[in-house]
Amino acid sequence: MLKLSDYDYHLPEELIAQFPPKIRGTSRLLVPSSGKLNDHTFEDLIDYLNKGDRIIINNTRVLPARLFGSKETGGKIEIMVERLVSETEVLAQIKASKALKEGQKVLINGEPLLEMVSRDEAFFLLKTVDNSPIAKVLEAYGHLPLPPYITRSDEELDQSRYQTVFNKEEGAVAAPTAGLHFTEEFLEKIKAKGIDVTEITLHVGAGTFQPIRHEDLDQHQMHKEWISVPQSAVDEILTTKQSGGRVIAIGTTAVRALESAGMSGELKAFTGDTNIFIKPGFTFKVIDGLLTNFHLPKSTLLVLVSTLMGKNRMEEVYAHAVKERYRFFSYGDSMLLIPKMDQQQE
């Protein structure tokens, strides 16, 4: 049995980054290589990438997905949008003293703007009262949905720093955080070295923060997220592989999108939902490596990186990161995980 308790580690609370670094791209980078653990700054990433390699970035844009309102009876409500269902509907998690009932309205700024349509376990289907676009409600009243481990309210700096510089496709409710380290200048520097850049989309859902509730990992049901891996991306990746270059995913979201598109054993264009759970026994068919931030204890993403690098090696990596006081989670530092590079002995 794959046990959840095997994917735990002790993290001092003060290592959880509450703010981004003052200047984008000045965070630290931990690189397991040739059996060693190397401490770098983020821009040193370029030294580990070769001409002919390809990085895969997620061009999703974070919605202002947190809404504060009230019931018609006056009770306060906090809404966290999970995903857009249609132009006028969202699936959301709701915090309230008493659960919303079907047909009940949600007042925002004193106006009845949303109505509860139905409920599916932890998620509520909400629609706009007058069938106006839900995006307009979010733009007018929404807050950027900082993760639950960031214990402050969103501020003006988050408007830009909780988005990647390559964000385009609106639909995420959490940032693809490995991408937050990149500046436009650094991307140009990467391209100038002969490293190619391919864009795909995965709209990160709030389910990414849902805890695993079963000790037996095989019992865990992954949340669904919408992805788009276009034919152009498939062609670019296959060209890189045929010429001997490596495919490096920027973030676990890019991994999940690419490996979902390669589930048949052959990488194919794919648009739709994925609920892929990458855990021991999984064979990576598309990526050769991954740049990622550090993940929560007992999380599906910690299981993912442990599957890629080996559980014992990731325990060493995380123990080193804690000892050297790396900054953790969304606004924290990063690590470059390339299994073959770490296995090569000098």
From TrEMBL:
InterPro entries: QueA, QueA_dom1, QueA_dom2, QueA_sf. Pathway: tRNA modification; tRNA-queuosine biosynthesis. It holds the Pfam family Queuosine_synth. Its main location: cytoplasm. GO terms for molecular function: S-adenosylmethionine:tRNA ribosyltransferase-isomerase activity. It is found in: Cytoplasm. SUPFAM superfamilies: QueA-like. It catalyses: 7-aminomethyl-7-carbaguanosine(34) in tRNA + S-adenosyl-L-methionine = epoxyqueuosine(34) in tRNA + adenine + L-methionine + 2 H(+). It is an enzyme of class 2 (transferase). Monomer. This is S-adenosylmethionine:tRNA ribosyltransferase-isomerase.
